[in-house]
Amino acid sequence: MRTESRPALVLLLIFTVLTGGVYPLVLTGVAKLVFPRQAEGSLIVHDGRAVGSRLVGQPFSAPRYFWGRLSATTPVPFDASASSGSNLGPLHPALFDAARARIAALRAADPTARGPVPVDLVTASGSGLDPHVSPAAAEYQVARVARARGLSPAEVRAIVSRHTEGRSFGLLGEPRVNVLETNLALDDLARPGAAR
Fold first, then answer.
1. Residues 36, 97: one domain?
2. Beta-carbon neighbour count of residue 118 at 10 Å?
3. Domain count, the chain
4. pLDDT tens across 119-156, in order?
């Protein structure tokens, strides 16, 4: 029995060190060399401190900010440790109720906004963490944000345009606007001495 146990224990120890220590360290090192920003979480550093990630949305509800997609994570919105969708089917009444509530909030925040509300402003993404909205969703909010900040819609559109990302590799996905980066740029614009 001892002759059978010893090789098994030695192999367990060797593979534990290899797969639990060496392999993760090598992968982390390669990732930091090849993709340094992504390996560190794609953090957004503002005024010398990390304020979020380019990959995880944040809740905004003040009229002076662009609002992102809804988050289905629980117990708090945009909880990266609880990434998930709502699992509600397209005909589920709770999905309709959430969409109606969001439309009502958008209309109340800007009664002058006309036309259909872009779907990504009233639905959650599959992960519940999406940091982006479509250019149409950003455009829908431009007048409200401009009015709340005392800016012209053209100034706000220029900031949105600077934070609009194209398709990945020119063909994957759709154009999108990073909500956190856009809101930070708007806050920077409000600082004394900021160029307009």
1. no
2. 18
3. 2
4. 999 888 777 788 999 999 999 999 999 999 999 999 99
| Residue 54 and residue 38 in contact, taking contact as beta carbons nearer than 8 Å | no
143 shares its domain with 174: yes
Instruction: Specify the long-range contacts of residues 193-196, CB closer than 8 Å, at least 24 apart.
Output: 196/155
Range of the domain at 65: 43-189
Q: Give me 51's structure tokens.
A: 């304020």
13/62 same-domain check: no
pTM of the complete model beyond 0.85: no
Q: Are 42 and 54 in contact (CB under 8 A)?
A: yes
Q: Are residues 79 and 110 in the same domain?
A: yes
> Tens of pLDDT along 150-186?
999 999 999 999 999 998 888 888 999 999 999 999 9
Q: Strand ranges (DSSP E) for the chain? A: 43-46, 49-53, 132-133, 164-165, 176-178
Query: Which amino acid is located at 177 in the chain?
Result: V
